[in-house]
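seq/struct pair 1
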Amino acid sequence: MSTLENIRQERIAKLQRLRDNGMDPYPARTERTHTITDFLEAYGELEKAQTSVTIAGRIMSIRDQGGVLFADLMDGTGKAQLVIQADTLGEEKLELFRSLVDGGDIIEAAGTAYTTKRGMQSLSVSGWRMLAKSLQPVPDQWYGIKDEDERYRKRYLDILLSPEIADRIRRRSLFWNTIRSYLLEQDFVEVETPALETTTGGADARPFVTHHHALDIDVYLRISAGELWQKRLMVAGLPKVFEIGRIFRNEGMSFEHLQDYTQLEYYQAFSDYEKGMEMITDLYRTIADKVYGTRIFTIKDFTVDLGKDWVIYDYCTLIQKEFGIDPLKKDTAEVAKALTSRAIPFDEEGFSIERGVDLLWKQLRKTLTGPGFLVRVPAYLEPLAKRSADDERVVERFQVLIAGSEMGKGFSELNDPVDQAGRFQHQQALRDGGDEEAQMNDASYVEALEYGMPPAFGFGLSERFFSFLEGVSAREAQIFPLMRPKTEDAKEPKTKERQVAVAVVRKEGLEPWQVLNTVAHLAAELGIREGRTLLTQDALTTADDERIPLNMRHAIILKETGDVAELRNLLRGAQANGLQAGAFTREMIETTNDRKIIETTAKMTFDEVDLLGVLVFGPASAVEPMTESFNRYA
C-alpha cells in the first residue's frame, strides 16, 4: 500500500472516532459569526471587549509545541492563527484536536481575540467542531504542485495553494463585469443566442460537430458569440445588443489559442467602425484602470501603454513594405513565392490567396507593439464587413493590435444582402475545395438581411486579452482548462490525423556543433519515447540490394528562436496540452554526468533554466499553430 493510501486509511478511521465522540464529521450547518477578514478588521475592538467570535476555514498547517497547538486557518477571505491550549479549551478537547484534526480539515473554531508574545493577532480557541474531514492530504503550502499537468488536473489544489491564482480568478471576474457594466451603462441589452447551430457563422474556424438525438440532426457548436443572431436582432429593431459567452473552435492549441473560451460580441445600430475605434479605445482603458490600476503593461518582450495615442496600421502598406507584394492584386503565385522565400510553411494542396496572405500577415504581425488599429484589409479576407466607400477592394474593418497579437476585431457590418450572398457563395466554394475554416453559406441570414438591417458597428473580444494583461498563457488564465484524460489509452492518438515533429533551437550564441548536438539529442529523446511507432519500416532497399536502415514516418521540422522565454512558453504549452515534448538545456551540453545535471537543475527555478532547444511532437492541428510564429532555421 502506498504512503498516500496509508494516510487516507488512517483518516477514514478518524471519521468513526469523531462520531464516537459525538461529532458529525460533515455537518450541514455552521455557527460562524465572522469571516476571517471581518475578524481581523475588527480585531482591536474584539480583543478589548473579549467578545466571543466563531470563524471557520481550512487548516493549512499545525504546529504542536506540547502544551499548546498553533494552527493556520484559511477561509478564502484571509488567514488567521489559532491558539489551542488546555487552559482555554480543556485537556480532553485539546487531545481530541491533536489526535483527530489534520492539515486540510475544515473546522469551526470559537474563541476570543488573543495577541501572542510575538505580537501575532490570533484566536484563542475555547471550542471547535469538525465541518469537513479531509481524507486526502493537501500538498505542502510552500512547495505546491510542481508538475504542470497535475496542476491543471487538480486545479482546485493549485488555487488553494497559490494565492496569486485565486487573485487572478477574482480579476477575471472583474474583467468581464467591467465590460458588462460598461455596455449596460450605455443602454446595451445583454442577450443569449444559440450555442448549437445548423450552420456556423461569424468567424473563420473549424467547428465541433455533435448529434442532436431529439431532432436526429447533426449540429455545430458555435464559433462566435452569436454574431449572425445578434445582427438578426438589429433587423428585429433592437439597436444595441451584446453577449458574453462560451465559444468553441476545433483547432490547435498554443500559448494564445484554446478550443473553448469566453468571448464578448456587441452590435450597435446606426454606428460604424470609425466611431467604434473611439469606443474601443475607451473600453480598453477602462478595463486597465478598473482591473489593474495602470495602463502600462509588459507583455512578452513588449512594453505597451494603453494610455498613449493608438497607432493606425495599414494592412496593404505593411504587407507590401515587408514582402514586396500588393495583396490587392490577388496574385496567388506571387504570394506562394513570398512564403517560400521566407521559409514560411504552407499546404500546397488547396492553397488559396486568402490563406496565403493571412500567413504572410501572421508573420509580420508579431513585430508590432501597438496599441493600434489595423485597417484597409482586403475584402476577400472578411466576408461579413462592409466595403470601403473609397476603395471597394478593402473593407471597413479594424483589428486591435497589442504586443504582436490580435486583441479584438470590429467592423462596419455588411447589410447589403446581395453582396453578402455573393461573399457567402465564395466562402462556400473555398470550403467545398477543402478549406475547413472558410465560412458556411447561411441562406437564412441573407433572407433576414433582405428585410433590412440598419448600418451598424460590431465588435468581438476574447479572453486572450485578459491572458495578455496577466502575462500568462491562455490555458493558465482559464480556471479549469481542458485536459486529456489520465489513462493509458489516452497516450495514443485516437484518430489518423497527420503527426508532426517540430524542433525549435536557439541560434544566437551557439556554435554550429552545439546546434547539431541539441537537435540530435531532441531527436533521440523523441525516438526513445515513441519507439518503433515512428518508423515506416526497418530499412529501405536500393536498386543494387543494399539496405539503408530505419526510415522515420515523420520529418522533424527545424525552426529557430533567439529568445529563451519563447522556448519556455513553448515547453509549458506543449506539456499543458498533453503533447510529446523534449527539451535540451545548457547543462546537458556542458557535461555528460547525469547526476550533476540533476543536482544543478534542482537548484534552479524553471525561469532560470537555460533552454537551448525544445521539440514538440503530436497532431498537426495542435503542433503547427503552437509553432507557427517561429521561423524556419536558416
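seq/struct pair 2
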Amino acid sequence: MNAFRFKNIVFLLLLVSSCTIIRKAPKNKPYLVANSIELVGGTFTKAERQSVIQRLTNQLDDSSKVKTKDAFFILHFLKHPVAYDTGYSSLSAFNMQTSMYHLGYYNAKASYTQDTVNRKVRVKYKVIAGKPTLIDTLRYRLKKQDFQQIALASKNQTYLVENTPVTKIAVLAEIGRLVDSFRNNGYYKFTAAELRMRGDSSIAALTSISDDPFEQLRLLNEAQLKKDSPTVKLALDLNPPEDSTKLNKYFINKIYILSDYRPDDLLNDTANLTQRTTPNFIHRYHERLFRNSLLARNITMLPGNVYRQDEYFKTISNLTKLGVWKSVNIRVVENVNETNKVDLIIELIPSRKFLFENSLEASYSSTSNTTQALGGNLFGLSANFSLKNKNIAKQAISMTHNLRLGVELNKASRTASNSIIFSNEISYTNTVLKPGLSPKTMKFFRLKSGDSFINSGFSYNKRLNLFSLQSVNLNAGFAGLDKKNHSYVFRVLNANFSYLYNQSETFKKLLIDNPFLRYSYNTAFTIGTAFSYASTFRNLKHPSSLSKERGFKFNIEESGLTWGSLPIFKKYKRRYIKLDTEYKYTVTKAKSAIAFRAFAGVGIPLFNDSLPFFKQF
C-alpha cells in the first residue's frame, strides 16, 4: 500500500511539473508555447554539444522566444504568449545556420516544423551540422617585410591551427593577436582594418587536366574526400589603408608626467606648474606629492625606444595598482617637428591621501553544557575603526591602522559581581605595504611584480573571573606575481606570542575536568618563516569552449628551525612544521557550474613540543 501511494505521489508531481499555466493568450489566434532544438552531427563532446545548443537557443528571434516564470520548482507560468508567425521561425532558423558558420560548419542546414494543437504551437528546430571545414594551411602575405617577419616570428602562437575548424572567433583572435604584435613593434596606429583574411577551398580535380586515367581517378578520389572532409587554405593579406601613416613605425620622443593633473591644465603652463627634468621624463606638478623615484620605478617606457603597446598598458597598470591616483591616463601625441616620433603625456589625478572607515558588529553565541562556565549565551557588540595613509614619504607607501573594541554581555551571568559584562576585548593591527621589490629579488624569484609588507598587531581579551589573554604578532616579507600570474608570499619573519594569565580557580578546575580545552587555552610563542604559493589556470586558448578553471594553493610554515634558534622565550616556544594544500576544479556552463574542491593539511610538532592552539586546524 505504501509503495502504491508513493507511485501516485511521484506521478502527481511529474504531472504538475510538466504542466504550464497559460495566462492572457491571444484570442482566436495560434500562439507559441514551446521551442525545441535538435542538433544532428558535428564533432562535439557531450559538454560542447550542450554549449552549442545553448548558443543556438540564443539565436531565436525575440518574437520566437517563450518566456516562462517558475514558482516552487514545479509551477510554470506563461503570460502574454506571442501570436505565432512563421516568418520569425524562418528568421530564427537562418540565424542558427549563420551561427554554425561562425563555428566552422559551413555546410550546416537549419530547418523547422511546427505542431499546432488547440491553437498552441510548438516549434521544433533541426540543425544538421555536417562536418566542420578544417584549416588546410595558413599563409601570411603582408607585402611589407617588417610585418611579414613579425608575423612569421610568432606563428607558433597562432589561433588558426592546421586540421582544426576555422571559426569566426579564431579568425578574429588571430587578427587581434597580429595587431597587438605590430603595435608592440612601433606601429601604434595599426588597426584590424589593415588586415584581411582570405580563403581558398578550390579542388585540384576541377582545375587540373591530365591524359593519364589513373591520375584522373586519383584527383576524383581526392575531390570526394574533400567533399566529405572540407578544408580551406587561409591567407592573411595586408589591406592598404588610405592613411599611409598607419604603416609607419614610431619611436618615443619625450615623456611628460602631470602627477597632480587638473582638467584645465595646459602642458606648457610654466606659471602654474613646477617642472623637474630627469633623463627619462619631465615631471610637472602644482604641489609635489610624489617623488621622481616612485614615478621612475613604475614607468617602463623610455625616450628613444620603439613605442610598444604592452609597455603602454603595463605602465598604466603599474600606476593604477599604487592606489594613490583615482585616474590614470596616457595620451599619445605625434610630434609635429620630428617624423615618426610621439610624445607621451601621463595625466594622473590624485586620490585622497587618507581614508577613514568605521563599522559596528553584533553577534550571538550559545555554548554547550560542557563549556557553560566559559560564558553561556553571549551577545556581543564590537566597533571597528580603520585609518589608512596611502602616500607615506611621497612614495605610495601605505600604512593602515585598525582598532577594534568589543564587549560580550551575558544576561545569565553568575559571576561574583553579577556583572552583565562577561568579557571585553581591544585589538590593534598595523599594516605597512611598500610597492615594488628590488631587481635582485625580482630576478631571483622570476617575478613580474611584487610588494613588501610588515604586519604587526596586539590584542587583549579579558573574561571576568576566568582569565586574561594577550596576543602579539609580527610578520614581514614580500608578495609577488610571476609571468604566468602565479602568486607567491614569503614571510621572512613570522612571529606570534599568546600569553594566558590571571587564571581563576574556576577556570583551572574547568581545564582539569575537560583536558581537551588545554590545547585551546595556553601560553605559546612561535617564530619562524612561512611560504605560500597559488596558481589558477583558465582555458583562454579556445574562447568558444566551455569555461574551465583549475586552482591550486600550497602553504608551509615552520617554527623553531630558523629564527626559533634564538634563545628567547624558551619556556613558551613551540616548534613545529605545518603544511596544507587545496585544489579546485570548476566547469562553468551556460546556466550552471560544477565545482570540485579537495583540501588536506597536517601539523607536525617537533622535539616533543605541541602545536599551539592558534595554529591548529
